[in-house]
Write a structure and sequence with these properties.
Elements: H1 6-19, E1 34-37, H2 50-59, E2 62-69, E3 75-77, H3 84-87, H4 98-101, H5 116-123, E4 129-133, H6 141-150, E5 157-161, H7 164-173, E6 179-183, H8 195-201, E7 213-217, H9 224-233, E8 237-242, H10 245-253, E9 258-261
Parallel strand pairs: 1-2, 1-9, 2-4, 4-5, 5-6, 6-7, 7-8, 8-9
Antiparallel strand pairs: 2-3
Amino acid sequence: MIYIPTSLVILFLIYLFLIAPKNKKEMKKFKSRLYAHRGLHNEEKAENSISAFKAAVDAGYGIELDIRLSKDGKMVVFHDDTLDRVCGREGKVIDFTAEELATFKLNGTNDGVPLFSEVLALVDGKVPLLVEIKENPGDSAVSKAACEMLKEYKGDFIVESFNPLSLKTVKENMPEITRGLLSQRYYEYEKYRKPLYFALQALLLNFLCRPAFIAYDHRHAKAFGLRFIRGFFDVPTLAWTVRSAEEEAIARKNGFDGIIFENYLP
């Protein structure tokens, strides 16, 4: 007979409580999809641009995109906090109005920073959306505004964030929205070697938001937290960001259901 100390059993049950996902059945029509990372962008079509989103719709791919707020409280689609990498100018997105951002050209193309409402009108339910919420720790303005906008959208969509508190806000304001937590093996990087990031890496803050899926850096497929939650709870997992057919084959071999891709056509 194997004797297991009661304390270990209690710790294991606490661990299960912390990482337990939401009902995975919500992900049935989303989990095996291909999602074009920031749209189907290339040298002619900038990331997170109307042109890239139109190309993804025309090709029938799902779309992954990023949302944040402008100075005047409008929801815009842009990944970075700052404008320098994509727009070649100083300043943060939050420092400019949506009208001003629309005039800033993305990667030298004719596209400006689009409104989220413009993207929703363009997609109009033709392909599923994977919406990443970008907001600073302690702020819930983006997640609250996203709920208000998405209440009116008739197409298929799911939301994700690296911040479980953002997803907690979504859960409280629109519990029917399918939520997913983005993560990675943070301890691979020196700047993230802190207790908070260990907890995020191990998915120990899932209890705050109860995600229905996990989106994980495909290069970190062997991370214990990811392997355990997939094996024990059979939670759907999406691989980010896959950049070649070879990487896609490895990601699928490592058990990922869906693929968030860029720089190649799956």
